[in-house]
Amino acid sequence: MTGRALLMWDESVTMYDFGPSHPMDPVRLVLTMALVRACGLDRAVDVVAGRPAGESTLRLVHHEDYVAAVRAASRDPRAAERSYGLGTPDDPAFAGMHEVSAMIAGQSVEAAEALWRGEAPHAVNFAGGLHHAMPGSASGFCIYNDASLAIARLLELGAERVAYLDVDVHHGDGVQAAFWDDPRVLTISLHEHPGTLFPGTGWPEETGGPGRGEGSAVNVALPAGTGDGGWLRAFHAVVPELLRDFRPQVLVTQHGADTHVEDPLAHLAVSLDAQRLVQEACHSLAHECVEDGRWLALGGGGYAVVDVVPRSWTHLVGIAAHAPVDPESVVPSSWRDEVYARTRQFGPGRMTDGHTRPEWRSWEDGYDPADRLDQAVLATRRALFPLRGMLP
C-alpha cells in the first residue's frame, strides 16, 4: 500500500452535461478540480484517469436492454424515445451520454478495485455518486449507478461486507434497490423526508428485503429545515454504532453537497462546516471500523455550483489525502479569478461558512419527544436496530 489516496479524474467527465438550463451544471466539476489544484492537493494524492466501464461491468447492476437504450440515445439524442427514464426533463438524452457515464462509473469501479488490492487506503471520485440510477432506468440526473457498480465489483472480488453511507439530501434509492435483498451490503441513507423531496422513498420502515435482506437498509428521514445541530446529531445517533457492529471490509460514502442551506433544490439548512465534520467522521470511522481503512468517497448532488460544491468536495479530497484544508484559510485568488472568468460570479473568500465547529448534542444526552429531529432518529432506531440485534 502506497499510503497515498487516489483521486479519480479525467477531463472527459465534464462532458456529463444535460444542457444549459439543467441544474447539474458540469462547471461544478471543473471548479472543484481547479480548487483542488489551487490548494495544492493534487500533489498530495495520486491522480488517476481510470477507464470507462465496459459492457460486462455495467451489467453487474444494469439490465442489458437499458444499456442498449443508453447507447442508442447517446448516438442519436433527437431520436431517443421517452423510455427507460431517458428523454425526460431530469434525464434528457445528449450526445456521448453513454461514454461519459461509463467513464464516471469506471472511475468508481477502478477505485474500488485498487482499494481491494491494497494499493491505496482511500480513493475519491467526486464526479461519481450518481445514486438514483436504477438497474433498468435512469432517474434523478443519473444514468449509470457508479456507487452500485463499485460495490458489485467488490462483491465479485470476494468482499463479504460492504457498507454504503449516503449523506446526500436525496434518498440513495438506486443503491438501496440494487442490494435490497443482499445482507453483504449495508446501505445507510440520511436524507430529507420523502414527504417533501424527490424521490419520495427512504422511509424508516424500509429496512431491506424480507428474509436474508431484512435489516440491511437504514433510512433516516430528516425534517425539512434541519440544520447543523440536528444533522450532526442524527448522523452520530445512527451511523457509528451501525458501522462498528457491521465491521465492513470497505466503506463507500456518497457526499452530495445539496444538504447545504443555499442549495436551490432542497430544504435542509446545513453549512459547509457541518459537511466537513461529517467527512472527517467518515474518515475516522473508516480507520476505526474497516480493515486497512479502505474508504471510497464519492460526490453526488449539489447545485450551488460556485459557492458550495467546489469547497465541500475540496475538503473531502484533503481529508482523504490526510492533508486537510484549514477551514479558516483564504480561498486562492487564482481560483476566484477562474470562477469569475467561467461564470461571471464572485467566488467565496474562505474555506468556511463562518462557524468551523458547529455545536451539536449527542444522542446519549437524552431524547426530546417533542423534537421532530429526535422523532425521526428514534423511528429509524426502532425500525432497524432490533433487526440487527441492537437496542433501539
TrEMBL record:
SUPFAM superfamilies, sorted: Arginase/deacetylase
InterPro entries according to UniProt: AcuC, HDACs, His_deacetylse_dom, His_deacetylse_dom_sf, Ureohydrolase_dom_sf
Swiss-Prot/TrEMBL keywords: Acetoin catabolism
Entry's Gene Ontology molecular function annotations: histone deacetylase activity
Signal peptide feature range: none
Domain Histone deacetylase, first and last residues per copy: 22-317
Gene Ontology BP, a term: epigenetic regulation of gene expression
Pathway connected to this protein: Ketone degradation; acetoin degradation
Family, as annotated: Belongs to the histone deacetylase family.
Protein name in UniProt: Acetoin utilization protein AcuC
